[in-house]
Amino acid sequence: MKPSLLALGAVFVLAACATTISPTGRTQYVGAVPEAQLNQLGSQAFAEMKAKQKLSTDGRQNAYVTCVVNAIVGQLPAQQRQIGWESAVFADDNPNAFALPGGKVGVYTGIFGVARNQDQLAAVIAHEIGHVTARHHDERITRQAGASGALQVVGSLLGSRYGEGVGNAAVQGGGIAAQAGFLLPGSRAQESEADVIGQQLMAGAGFDPRAAVTLWQNMIAAGGSRPPQWLSTHPDPQSRIGELQSRAASLVPSYEQARAAGRVPRCG
C-alpha cells in the first residue's frame, strides 16, 4: 500500500476507536476491530491450533482443565459467560496457557509441572481469562493499528507469546493485525491487571488466592537461571510475588465466603 493510503487507513481506524475504563480503572483505547469479529478471529485461531498441534488424549487432564475453566467462567458477568467458552489441552512440554476472544482457553501439558494442584492451575487460567475480560487483545490490536497506520503487521512477529504453532494460525489481510493482538506479549500494565482480575475470579470461584503466590514460586524455580518463556514479558517476578501475597491476604474472606456458599471446586 502507498504511504498515503496507509495514513488514510490509520485515520479511519483511529476514528472508530473508543476510550473505555478497564476493570482496574485504567484508561484503554479499543475498538479497531468490532467485538464480534474479534471473537470470530479468536475462534478461528483456536480451531486452527487444534487442527495443527497435537492434543492431549488424556481424559483426566481434559476433564481437569474443563472443570477449572467452568468454575472460573461461572464468576464472570452473564454477558461474558454466554460467549461459548471452550478449552483444549495441547500435548506440549511448554509450561504455558492462554485465552482468546470468543471464550477459547488453551493449556499446554507442561503447565501441570508447575501448577501442581487445582488452585495453582486456577491461578494460571484465571489470569489468562482476565486478559480476555479486560479486553487486552482489543487494546493491543488498537494500539498496533494506530502505530502501523493500517491493519497490516508482519507475520514474523506472531507467536512470541504463545509459540510457533499459534503464530502459524494467523489469517491474511486485515485479520493479521487482530491475530497479532492475540499473540504478542501484553504490556506489563496488562499483565499486572490480569493478575488482579485473576486472583479476584479464582477467590470468587472457591479457589485459594494464596495459590497464585506458590504458582509463581514454582515457575521461577522451574526456570532456573533462565525463566520460562511465560515469564519473559511479565513484571519482575519478586515484585509480582509481593503484590500477589498482599492481594491474597485481602481476598481470603472472599474465598471463604465462596466456600461457605457452596462454591467448592473438586476438579483434581
From TrEMBL:
Keyword Transmembrane: no
GO process terms (BP): proteolysis involved in protein catabolic process
Cofactor note: Binds 1 zinc ion per subunit.
Molecular functions per Gene Ontology: metal ion binding; metalloendopeptidase activity
Record's protein name: M48 family metallopeptidase
Source species: Luteimonas salinisoli
Cofactor names: Zn(2+)
Superkingdom of origin: Bacteria
Keywords: Hydrolase, Metal-binding, Metalloprotease, Protease, Signal, Zinc
Any one cellular-component term (Gene Ontology): membrane
Signal peptide: 1-18
Family stated for the protein in its record: Belongs to the peptidase M48 family.
Domain Peptidase M48 per the UniProt entry, residue ranges: 61-247
Pfam families found in the cross-reference section: Peptidase_M48
PANTHER family assigned: M48 FAMILY METALLOPEPTIDASE (PTHR22726:SF24), METALLOENDOPEPTIDASE OMA1 (PTHR22726)
